[in-house]
Amino acid sequence: MSRAVTLETLSLVPLVLSVEGFLSDDECTYIQETAEPHMEYSEVTLMDKDQGRPASDFRTSQSAFIRAHDDAILTDIDYRTASLVRIPRRHQEDVQVLRYDVTEKYDSHADYFDPALYTKDKRTLALIRNGHRNRMATVFWYLSDVEKGGETVFPRFNGAQETSMKDCKTGLKVKPEKGKVIIFYSMTPDGALDEYSLHGACPVQKGTKWAANKWVWNEPMQFVPS
C-alpha cells in the first residue's frame, strides 16, 4: 500500500536521499526471518586488478538474495520502492539481504560496473551489454538499529578525491536506523557513471547490522509487472 513519505536530501555530490520509517518493524523482522536460513558469506564481482583475491579481502558480511514471487509483503515493498524512485518495478534486481556482525565491513566500492575495469569478466560485460546498461540507483534498506558502528560512508562526499574509507572518520556517514532507507545514484542524469557514488560499510563495533540492497537498473531486468 502506498503512503506519503518525506524525502530528506543528505548530499548533492553524490546525490543521497533518506526516508525514515519507509519499512515497518514487522516488515524488517519478516525480511530478516525470510533471509536468515539462506545466508552465506558475501561474494564480490572482482575487477581485473583484483582477480585471484578472496572476497573476504573486501567484504566480510553474510548475504542472501530473496525473490518476491507470490509473497505479498515483499511484492508490496517492491512496488513502494518503485514508486519512491519513480522507476518501474521490472527495473529492480531481487533484494539482497545483508548481515554484519562485530568487525564485519565492506570496503569502499561502486555499485555500477565500469566496463573498462571488467575487461576479463565476460559474464559481467554481457550483463551490462558492454556498458549500454547498468545499475543506476540503490535503495538501501536498514532492517535494524546498530548499537555502535556499521554506518554507510560516502568518502567522496562534496567532491572529495578520497577513494578509500580509511578509518570511517571522513566523508558522509549515515547511521543505521531500523525502517529507514537511503537512495543514492550510480549514474548522473546524462547517463554517465558517477564516481562520487563510491561508498562502503563501516565495521560494526557493537551489535548486529541487518540491511538490504535493492538495486535499480536503467533498463528492465526481469519480466514482472511494472
Automatic annotation (TrEMBL):
Entry GO terms, CC: endoplasmic reticulum
Q: Which domain of life is it from?
A: Eukaryota
Check the record and name the Pfam families matching this protein. 2OG-FeII_Oxy_3
SMART domains reported in the protein's UniProt record: P4Hc
- Originating organism: Phaeodactylum tricornutum (strain CCAP 1055/1)
* Coiled-coil annotated residue ranges, if any: none
Q: Which UniProt keywords apply?
A: Dioxygenase, Iron, Metal-binding, Oxidoreductase, Signal
The residue ranges of the Fe2OG dioxygenase domain are 91-220
Cofactors, names only? L-ascorbate
Gene3D superfamilies cross-referenced by the UniProt entry: q2cbj1_9rhob like domain
Give the protein name, as stated in the record.
Proly 4-hydroxylase
PROSITE patterns (UniProt xref): FE2OG_OXY
Which residue positions does the secretion signal occupy? Answer: 1-18
- Give this protein's Gene Ontology molecular function annotations: iron ion binding; L-ascorbic acid binding; procollagen-proline 4-dioxygenase activity
